[in-house]
Amino acid sequence: MSASSFGVETVVCVRHGQTRANALDERLDVDLSGCREEVLNELTAPGRQQMASVRVWLIQGGFAEFGAYRVSSHPRTRESALVINPEAPWQEDSGFDERNWGDLAFLTRGQRIKRYGEAFSKRSDNPYRWTPPGNGERIHAVDSRVRTSLGDLLRLEARSCCLVAHGGSISLIRKNMMGWTVDEYNAQYNARDYTKGMPGDWIPNGGILIFTRRDPHSLRLVEEFSEGWIRQVWPYRDLDSGWQSASQNQDTRGECQNGILSGRQVVA
Q1: What is the CATH number of the domain that holds 189?
Q2: What is the DSSP-derived secondary structure letter of residue 99?
Q3: Domain for residue 124, yes or no?
Q4: What are 150-192's pLDDT values in tens digits?
């Protein structure tokens, strides 16, 4: 995805901090259906610490101020954004909202697999077009609105932008920035290993993904984000990939090895 030479040069994406629902996600014995949505969406103490770590890292990393600030319309992203910078002029953009999970919305990951195992068994065939039970939202539909909002963002008259959103929408931002095809996105999706610190294209709670068209070393400016540089950071766990060339990593899958994100070539 490209931007004008006078448009946005750097986009810093931050996933919201851990919520109560995130904290219970791996539990099989917890039923969240009776819980109020606003309670499930509240940040936990670790979630607030994650966002405080993001704030410190951004300031120390030279990202103290941005030309534009965007946040999805969900309370958990708004709460996270205000920890990062309570004085910033955050503007909501629902195009970056979380996916509508249909009947899966108030189930932990373990319960989703337990109750809808047959439906989940078909997801790996084509995650991009798989429909969650209960008329949930396909990734294809989420990608459409993310792409529209991302295009609007990149046309802003600002050099940099900070966006606080969700893991799913940030992974689709990466898809569009890198110019991945649907097949390439599906391969990334199916390669995720949630036992690792930063699995593949996935961003953990409090994780940061940075795209820039400005060479961090020479300051040379390129036209396309897919020809620029990317960096993935999880300040809460002191994980940092360092700056990587996006063009060299366009066909790679990130793996967390020894606490540091690295690239490994995928052979088709």
Answers
A1: 3.40.50.1240
A2: P
A3: yes
A4: 999 999 999 999 999 999 999 999 999 999 999 999 998 988 7
